[in-house]
């Protein structure tokens, strides 16, 4: 770890500065050292988090699973055709969702 020290200016909300000052006093530290410890802890957590799989890793996994997804979609289509016997839905799904939202909103209005 480097022993070189640098000065950094940080702008804080008054409330946060006050709470940090109190916490520093309780720990017997200067505000500067308290902030340094808090920032170091946050950086450590971030570095640990960076070692976990991220979205790019998830995209790779999704690509690998696409074949399985295609098979699942095909099974869903077969089930839908079996249930509806090839007939299209009588209503548009957007209209169904809109109606359900209106019903929910009416219920919420009754409860208020």
Notes on the protein architecture:
The protein is mainly alpha-helical and 112 residues long. The protein folds into 2 domains: 14-50; 55-111, no CATH class. Helix content is 73%, strand content 0%. The protein has 4 helices and no strands. The chain has helices spanning 14-26, 31-50, 55-84, 93-111.
Mean pLDDT comes to 80
N-to-C SSE string, H for helix and E for strand: HHHH
Beta-strand level of the residues, as a percent range? under 5%
Mass-distribution shape: elongated
Distance between the termini: 59 Å
Low-confidence stretches: none
Our Rg estimate from Cα atoms comes to 28 Å
Domain count: the total is: 2
**Count of DSSP helices?**
4
Got a strand count?
A: 0
Report on the biggest sheet. Answer: none
Percent helix among the residues? over 70%
Question: What oligomeric assembly is this protein in?
Answer: single chain
> Structural class of the secondary structure composition?
mainly alpha
List keywords for this structure.
elongated, mainly alpha, 2 domains, 112 residues
Task: Describe the secondary-structure layout.
Elements: H1 14-26, H2 31-50, H3 55-84, H4 93-111
Summary of the model, kept short:
With 112 residues, the protein is an all-alpha fold. The chain has helices at residues 14-26, 31-50, 55-84, 93-111. The protein folds into two domains: 14-50; 55-111, no CATH class.
